[in-house]
Amino acid sequence: MRYLLFIAAGYCCGSILFAYFLPKILYDVDITEISDDKNPGTHNAFKYGSKVVGTEVLILELLKGFLPVFLGTQFLDVSNNVFAVVMAAPVLGHAYPLYRHGRGGKAIAVTFGVLMGLFPIITPLSLLVFFYLLFSCVIRISPDSCKSIVTFLCFGVSALLLIDIRAVAAGCVVITAIVLYRHYQKHMTESLEISLFRKRVV
């Protein structure tokens, strides 16, 4: 029962799209309407809101992943396989919030929050930070969506190989699957919109 409570709480926390609500409340700006990728994420909060609101969104997005998982590590057994679902719940909530009919964000910031919540287990967070830095500063990949896909692929594989706690490794793999599938859906939606636009123009 405790695991179910943390899974439900994590999903509900994750489904609060701060990048959508804060710009709308403070600036009357709907970033899902005016942004190119329609993504209710931290990047668009910075781009279409302001540095202040972007920073606030970033902190809140990290917290909504951090708090459910960190509290879970205090009350649950992280080696229990169900803990993988506790880890994935905030990410799933952000990517597929019920009240927006599944139209959530790409779940990058909330993933960092989840991995921060595993402290003192730092290997998962270290891996994700390493691959983001690698593909941002050393082997530069663009656009950002492609960089995120490659980063999470490497993160998921390395988590399986390097993380000793199987439940935590499984949680990283499940998170990777959610993020990759969300990116795939976003790409397919954008491609369909471009195709329909071209047909209307022709």
From TrEMBL:
Repeat among keywords: no
GO molecular function, one term: acyl-phosphate glycerol-3-phosphate acyltransferase activity
GO cellular component, one term: plasma membrane
Protein's GO biological process: phospholipid biosynthetic process
Domain of life of the native organism: Bacteria
Pfam families named among the record's database cross-references: G3P_acyltransf
Protein name (record): Glycerol-3-phosphate acyltransferase PlsY
Source species of the chain: Anaerocolumna jejuensis DSM 15929
